[in-house]
Write a structure and sequence with these properties.
CATH superfamily of the largest domain: GAF domain
CATH class of the largest domain: Alpha Beta
Order of helices and strands: HHEEHHEHHEEHHEHEEHEEHHHEE
Distance between the termini: 93 Å
CATH topology of the largest domain: Beta-Lactamase
Number of helices: 13
Helix content: 40-55%
Strand content: 15-25%
Strand order of the largest sheet: 2-1-5-4-3
CATH architecture of the largest domain: 2-Layer Sandwich
């Protein structure tokens, strides 16, 4: 083989290799740019703007657009179009913007049907074929003449086998004149764009869902406050009527009326307590409660509740034991809400223990304060344990003993303990075998 022919072949091979390397470097650079954009931007519209602009600029295209599939209306909705200065000028003179036109009736448009529903790459040789019937033919003809837009590439955007839309790319040269490496680089963009858009739309769906949830919570909060205040008002009015009756304001009551007034007053007090419980739970859950965190002697709180609850327990024939170890029980917390925790747990133990007794204990170990209430009451089944501290999580046996149980008491207690960065849990060997509730808090 002559030397010149050999040199020519080597030169051609070297040129081909350098061209391939240049295309790969450009593609890698663009892919890296798209990846960075997808990490920084999660709004679909802004993301599509950045992506289409990057692709058009780096690959020297005249037009790059992203269209999203709307299956219900069988149409493609423009998300964004990036245009070269030459094409943009031509479009403005024609009074036409690609982003204004929704491509409707995809299933009856063979070109788009192939890309969207068959999920395959497609090539359009003229703009008229893409927007036929949607835009005045004269405008499309002028655009073709002024912009030198030769081919339009339609790349389906598919993620997890789900069709998202189309990546539309307009070139000022014939697609077939591209070498294999350039064609591969164009195809490689498709997957990156599809994944980036899917992530952005998932984030948007999550944002929308969170916003809907926030609105529902606000509506629920307003409803809870309205209902509880109305109900509490009714209880309060009848409570004072019964109290006035028992004090003799309306004269001497017969034994039957006195019994009815006593029961009515007790029922109203229970009703007000229940309303306050639900209202407190709602306020604690939505974070509207402001805690006053100060050094608190937790033992004093426990002693106060013991003093209040010991007589009611013993009047039921229950044995009331106290086991408080000597020591310093100072913690950082809100005394009012911590008292709610202790009161609720001891009160529950008294209510749900029909025979036997209960023990209230307090001890300090390794910088932790452990408060517990142990009883011989109705116990807790494995099924009830799963819902014990959840909203409305009433135990099956607790409802049998106390029909007024709302399931908000332990839910409220858990919210308060969580704010104090403590732990609460319960132990029980099962139904009718008693239970022990523990609260662990950090000492100071």
């Amino acid at each position: 083989m002559p030397l010149n022919d050999e040199t020519k072949k080597i030169t051609e091979a070297l040129y081909e290799h350098n061209l391939e390397l240049a295309v790969k470097n450009k593609t890698l650079s663009l892919l890296r740019k798209l990846y960075q954009v997808s990490l920084l931007i999660l709004d679909p519209i802004t993301l599509s703007q950045k992506i289409s602009e990057a692709i058009r600029t780096d690959l020297n295209f005249d037009l790059v657009g992203i269209l999203i599939l709307d299956k219900k209306s069988d149409s493609l909705v423009p998300l964004n179009f990036s245009k070269s200065d030459r094409l943009d000028e031509s479009l403005r003179e024609a009074g036409f913007l690609f982003s204004d036109i929704k491509i409707t009736g995809i299933s009856s448009r063979p070109i788009f049907k192939k890309s969207v529903y068959n999920k395959t790459f497609n090539l359009i040789t003229t703009a008229e074929k893409a927007w036929d019937g949607l835009v005045d033919p004269k405008i499309l003809s002028k655009i073709k003449e002024d912009s030198n837009l030769k081919n339009i590439l339609l790349n389906p955007l598919i993620s997890e086998n789900s069709m998202t839309g189309l990546l539309l790319m307009g070139m000022n040269r014939d697609y077939e004149t591209l070498n294999a490496h350039e064609k591969d680089s164009i195809n490689s963009l498709r997957d990156v764009v599809a994944v980036a858009l899917e992530k952005a739309y998932l984030y948007k769906e999550l944002q929308d869902a969170n916003e809907s949830l926030r609105n529902l919570i606000k509506q629920r909060e307003s409803l809870v406050h309205l209902v509880t205040h109305k109900v509490k008002g009714s209880f309060t009015r009848t409570k004072y009527i019964f109290a006035e009756m028992l004090e003799g304001t309306f004269g001497v009551l017969s034994p039957m009326l006195k019994k009815m007034a006593d029961e009515g007053l007790e029922s109203d007090n229970q009703g007000i307590e229940t309303v306050d419980l639900v209202l407190n739970a709602a306020n604690l859950q939505t974070g509207t409660v402001k805690y006053e965190m100060k050094p608190v002697d937790f033992r004093k709180i426990v002693d106060q509740i013991i003093k209040v609850k010991k007589d009611p327990a013993e009047s039921k024939g229950l044995k009331f034991e106290v086991d408080i170890k000597d020591g310093d029980y100072n913690i950082l917390g809100d005394a009012f809400w911590l008292k709610e925790v202790v009161h609720n747990l001891v009160d529950n133990s008294v209510k749900y223990t029909l025979k036997g007794g209960l023990k209230v204990g307090l001890k300090k170990e390794d910088g932790k304060i452990l408060f517990y209430v142990k009883d011989t009451g109705v116990g807790i089944t494995d099924e009830d344990k799963r819902n014990l501290f959840k909203e409305g999580g009433r135990g099956r046996n607790s409802v049998k003993v106390n029909v007024d149980s709302t399931g908000y008491g332990l839910f409220t207690v858990k919210l308060i303990v969580d704010v104090h960065k403590g732990r609460i849990w319960a132990e029980s060997e099962g139904e009718n075998k008693g239970s022990t509730f523990f609260v662990e808090l950090d000492a100071i």
